[in-house]
Structure formats: structure tokens, C-alpha cells
Batch of 2 targets.
Target 1
Amino acid sequence: MITPQALADILTAHPTLSILGYPGYRTEPRGMSNVEREKSLHIDRLELLSALDQVRHAATWLAAQPRTAGKPSTKSPTSYWLKHAMEQLTGVYVTNGAFIAAALLLDVSMHLSPRGGLNPHLGIATRELKKAERAGWRRP
């Protein structure tokens, strides 16, 4: 069972993770001051802390997915693609940040782009998911 404390520990270990994913702050509107960005990040992180049910749902789904061997690369599926696959197959919405937090709690291998970005690449096998996609559901 994923506890509120476990989720809080993930946020402590990943100080830019928020409900949106990484880098954890809104980049729009342009011209946002550092103080405004920090406030926005704080609000987004509080929102992720309150999304425990989403994290648990994503973790349950992720735990049933086969993992890839080795480290993920930029060719591996992103958290965003995988969260949409889960939503299509389960009918349950989760945020990108909740999905990433679930992956971190399950020790799913992850590749964060050194240039930043909201969506890390995850070490989840997609063969069966891509078959399901071809059979009827579509990525947004």
C-alpha cells in the first residue's frame, strides 16, 4: 500500500516533481518571476500530495506491466504516453505527476532528459500496449 508518507518521501527526493511531471513548474506565461515560479511549483506539489488515489491507481496498473531490460533511452515510452495507455485501458484519469510518482515508488527505471521536460522515459515494455492501441484506442 502506498502511504501518504511514501509519496511525501518521493517529493522530498525529487524536488522538481509536481502534479504536472518534470520540471515541476509552469513555464507559461512567459516572464514569470522566480518567486512566482516557486509559488506555482509549491502549489503543484501540494496538488500531487493530494492525488494519492491517482498514484495508487497508476501504481497498481504499472505493477502489472512488464519491464524492459537495461536502462530506458529516448526511444523508450514516456510517462505521458504510458499514462494515456493506462487511461485508455482502465477508463481512469491520472495526472502525469501522479503516474511518475507511482513509477518512482515502484522503482521503475527512468531516463530524465538533461535538457529538462515534463515526461521522463520509463523502462516499461510496450509490445502488448501497442497491440491494444492498434486494436482500437488512440493516443490523444
Note: Helices lie at 4-13, 34-49, 52-63, 79-90, 96-105, 127-134.
Target 2
Amino acid sequence: MRTVGPAPAVDAGGGTIGGQHLPLRDQVLVALRQRIVNGDYPPSERLTEDRLAEDFGVSRNPVREALRVVEAEGFVIMIPRRGAFVASPDATTIADMFAVRARLETLAARLAAERATPRMSPASDVCWTTRGWPPIGSTSRRSPSSTVNCTCGSSRSVATGGLPR
């Protein structure tokens, strides 16, 4: 009688790992990163080559190569004679990650607002008092603050940070 093994690993595109035209190591690397980030392999969990090879339906060689890469990226810690373990970020690392993320999200929002056109945002003429943000194109990047004139006739001074172009 044939036993049923684990389902083949599925990539983000919905196919099996071998279904893409990428080197097998890269496919295993993407899947391994994704599983670590998603918490499928929680922090401090031991990762053996045999288990990962079985999880991904590949030989140990691409798993070994992928483990070297995720170790260099900081996702995994290799301990001599003990194996690979999923890294556990400390409080300082987590605080640093959130600080960087906050800065990047703020910058991304500012750039998106500056580059948006009325066609991209049909609600761009909605009053900032009802939406919580000024109409698109209403602030200046060169001055530390600007006056926003809303379509309802009201106005408000808005701090823009005075970013240089």
C-alpha cells in the first residue's frame, strides 16, 4: 500500500517549486524565506536539511545552498555541530525595523501624493476636513509649511517638512 507524503511545496504563483524556470536553489530560497517570514518555521526552530528537502520535494543540495544564503541574510543562524536555527530578532532589531519601516512608509506616502494626478485619484478634490488630508498638489516641497486652499473655500497651514528636491 502506498503512503501519502507531504504535499509538494507551492510557490507564490500557485505552482509547484519545480514549475518555474529558475535555478532550483533560487526556488527553494524564495520558498524558505517566505515560510520563515510567514511564521511556518517559527523563531528558534531547528531546520534540518533532510526535513527541508522533504518539505520542498527536492534533494539536500539546493536546500544546503539556500541555507547558506538565508544565513548571510540573517534569517537563519548556523551553529557548528548543531545545525541551522531560525533567527530570533532581539528587541533592538525589532525597534530598528519598525523605525525604518515608519520612515519608508512616510516617504512612500509623500511621493505617491506628489506624483498622483486627478485621474489617478478621483477623490482628489474632496475637502481635507472630511478626508483628513489636503487635496493633491496643494503643498510645496521647498517651504517648511504651505497654505492649503480647499475646494470648500476653507484654508489651513500644513507642515511639509521642507524637503529639498
Note: Confidence is low (pLDDT under 50) at residues 1-5, 124-131, 138-145, 157-165.
